[in-house]
Design a protein that fits this description.
heterodimer, A: about 250 residues, Rossmann fold, six-stranded mixed β-sheet, 8 helices, B: about 220 residues, mainly alpha, globular
Chain lengths: ~250, ~220
Amino acid sequence: MTPADFDHLTVDDVSRHFGRRRALSHISFRADRGAILGLLGPNGAGKSTMLALLATLLRPTSGRIRYGDGGAAGAALRAAIGVLGHDVFLYPELTARENLEFFAGLYGIADLGAAASRALETAGLAGRGNDAVSSFSRGMRQRVALERALIHQPRLVLLDEPFTGLDDASAEALGRRLTGLRAGGAIVILATHDLDLAQGLLDRAVFLRDGRVVHAADRPDALRAMYRDLMARVGTAADAPDLTSR
Amino acid sequence: MFGRIVWLVLRKDFMIEVRSLETAYTMLFFAISCVLVFAFALVQEGRAPEGGAAGILWIAIAFAGTLALGRTFERERQAETLRALLLAPAARPAVYLGKLLGIVALLSAAETVLVPLVALLFQAPLLAHPIWLALILLTGTVGFAAVGTLFAAMLIRARSRDVLLPVLLYPITVPVIIAGVRATSVLLEPDVNTGFLQVWLALLVCFDVVFVTLALWTFEPLMTD
C-alpha cells in the first residue's frame, strides 16, 4: 500500500465531545512539513484527545482535519502516521526485535529483519534486541517505542508526553531524534507539559486550556514564562485565535 | 496482505502465550476444576447420568473460553497495544481473524485435555468417534470464539468488562452450546444416528458462517471511535 503524502495538515474548527463532556472546543491550527509543533497545556487541557483525533483514532464531533489538500483517508492515511503514545504500545513478553518486526509487518514492510535491525541500531539497542521488553528500563522502552512509531518512516509523527520518565541523556537523545525528523521533512506534533525540554525544540507552540486554544506562538522562547502568564488567565471562546493561517 | 496480517497477529499471540503460559494455565486449571466438581457431584457409585458428559464438556469449554477471551484482550489493553494495532494500516478484519484463530487454537489445546478427562470421569465413549467429535468441537469452538472475540474487543475499554463479557456472550452463544451438546450427546449413544449428527453439525457450520461474517463485517466500525 502506498502511504498518503501531504506537506501540511489543517485542523479546522474541531470540537470533540464525550457524551456531555466537552474535551475540545473549536480548535484550529496548521502544522507544516519540516517543523515541530508543540501542544502545550496542563493535564486535562485536551492534548491527548487532539493527538487521538490527528491519529484517526477518534472522529471530531464537529469541524474537520485535513491532511494536505484533504484527499487522504483510511489505511493509506494511517500508513503515513506514526504515533508514540503515553503508553509504549509494546508487548512486554516479546523481545525488542520481535516487537519491531511485528509492527514492521503490520505496516507492510517487506524485509522485517532489516527494518528491525535498523530501528534497533538507531535506538542504540542493537546489543539488546533479543532481550524481552519487560527487562528494559523506562528509557530503553521509550527508545524502542519511538523506533516502533517511526519504523515505516511516517510523514506525520505524533508524540504524547514523549519525555515522561526519561533521564537527561535519554531526553537529549530524543530531542536529537526529533530534530532529525524535522530535518527529514516530517510533520512533528508533540503534546507535553515539560516546558524545559520543549524549550528550543519547537517551531510553533499551541497552548491549550480546558479544551480551547488560548494562544499560539511561532519560534517561542521563554516558554515557561509565557505558559505561566497564559494559564493564569481564564481562557474564553473570545480569546481563541484563528491559527489556520500563518 | 490480509493473510500476512492474520499470520502476524496469530504468531504474535502464540509467542506471547508460549512465553508466559498464563492464559493456558488459568484456563486449564479452571476447566479441570469445573469437570472435577461436576464429576464428584453427579457420578454416583461409578455411574454417571446419561448424556451428562456432553453437557459438562461444553460447560467447561464455555467457561474456559470466557477466561481465555478476557485474558487475551486484557494483554492488549495493559500496554495499549490494541491502539497500536488499530493505528496500523492493516485491515482490521485481518486483526480480528488473527485474534480469533489464536483463541480457537488455545481452546482446542484445552479440549485435548478436557475430552479424555471427561471421558474418564464420566465413563463416556467420547473418543469412540474421534473424527466426528473433532468436527463438532471445532465448529462449536469457532462459533463461540467468533462472538467472544468480537465482544471482548468491543468491551476492552469498559470498566466492568469482566462482568459484561459473559452477560453478553452467553445469551448469544446459547444456540452454539446447545447444538454442541446435542451433537456430542448423539455421539455417546450406543448406535450413533449419523443423520441427527449431520443436522446438528450443519447447524453449527451455519452459526459459524453467520457469526464470523457478521464479526468481520462489524469489527472495523465497532473498533473505530
